[in-house]
């Protein structure tokens, strides 16, 4: 091959490489339109309705997982079935115990970004149970009743103050009376490979949370290398401040740090 031919070939290869790089950058910068919302313990997916409405109006394809909260394995399986139905990349969002679910299910190839809303972000071998077994002195203690047939409930009379302090009283009362049993096998389910170690993540700290203390939230977010936002709100911030929650989900969808 003479020098002229080599130069032409080199130019072609360089051009193709530049085109491929540009395509990769364009794909990376494009907003993800599929959002999957995962609820936590004691509640179901209906609490996401206000966030759902905001995101739908902005053109997002939003799916809400209805986990049985019987075991971590079951909840991960249900979440992965929802992910499988999406037609492209996914922003996977978890609240509270839902953070453990997305940490385990988020290794799915379709999941590109993770969002934790006042959520647990366990490391390998950790569970919600292990993360809450030794609360710091003076930290609020959630009013969890003794297990019944392998399931946990919150004291109804103390539900609002601990879980939904900034939610209107009638709505918080309904949440207390419509509690979903949270299985011990869900709370004790250990993470194998946490998705936040390989996927970019965002974290919203609820600064008035009385279920997961804000310092614990900040520690988990920092460990995960998450992009962190903070807002005053109870553990049910996804119900009381849907605009704030939708905003961080959109931030993740656009890959904004």
From TrEMBL:
UniProt entry keywords in alphabetical sequence: Hydrolase, Signal
Gene Ontology molecular function: any one: hydrolase activity
Superkingdom, natural source: Bacteria
The organism's taxonomic lineage, starting at the top: Bacteria, Pseudomonadati, Pseudomonadota, Betaproteobacteria, Burkholderiales
Domain called AB hydrolase-1: residue spans: 35-247
Signal peptide: 1-22
Protein name: Alpha/beta hydrolase
InterPro entries reported in the protein's UniProt record: AB_hydrolase_1, AB_hydrolase_fold, Sec-Metab_Biosynth_Hydrolase
Pfam (any one): Abhydrolase_6
């Amino acid at each position: 091959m003479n020098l002229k031919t080599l130069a032409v070939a080199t130019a072609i290869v360089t051009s193709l490489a530049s085109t491929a790089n540009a395509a990769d950058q364009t794909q990376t910068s494009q907003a993800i339109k599929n959002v999957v919302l995962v609820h936590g313990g004691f509640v179901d997916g209906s609490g996401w309705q206000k966030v759902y409405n905001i995101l739908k109006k902005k053109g997002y394809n939003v799916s809400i997982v209805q986990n049985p909260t019987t075991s971590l394995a079951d909840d991960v399986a249900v979440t992965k079935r929802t992910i499988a139905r999406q037609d492209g990349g996914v922003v996977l969002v978890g609240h509270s115990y839902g953070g453990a679910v997305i940490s385990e299910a988020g290794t799915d190839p379709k999941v590109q970004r993770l969002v934790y809303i006042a959520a647990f972000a366990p490391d390998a071998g950790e569970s919600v149970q292990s993360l809450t077994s030794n609360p710091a002195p003076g930290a609020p203690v959630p009013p969890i009743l003794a297990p019944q047939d392998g399931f946990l409930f919150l004291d109804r009379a103390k539900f609002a103050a601990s879980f939904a302090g900034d939610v209107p009283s009638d709505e918080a009362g309904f949440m207390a009376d419509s509690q979903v049993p949270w299985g011990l096998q869900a709370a004790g389910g250990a993470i194998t490979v946490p998705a936040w170690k390989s996927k970019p993540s965002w974290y919203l700290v609820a600064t008035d949370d009385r279920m997961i203390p804000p310092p614990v939230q900040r520690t988990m977010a920092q460990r995960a290398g998450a992009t962190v936002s903070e807002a005053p709100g109870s553990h049910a911030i996804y119900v009381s401040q849907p605009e704030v929650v939708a905003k961080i989900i959109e931030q993740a969808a656009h890959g904004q740090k």
